[in-house]
Amino acid sequence: MALRLFELLPRHPVVTVASVMKLVETTKPTAGGATERLVAAGVLVETKRPRGSLLGAAVD
Fold this sequence. Notes:
The chain has three helices and three strands. The chain has helices spanning about 1-10, 15-25, 30-40, and strands at about 15, 45-50, 50-55.
């Protein structure tokens, strides 16, 4: 699942768990796990918001 999300990031560089659920047609736990793996790998950067986290593709 993380690989599928990774492949979509060039067209969707800013995502939330909810948007990942729609993009890859999966459940909330699976989408959350995929985003967590990409954050851990340094591919996504997490920004906390009052209504949830916003995740953006990391830029070198």
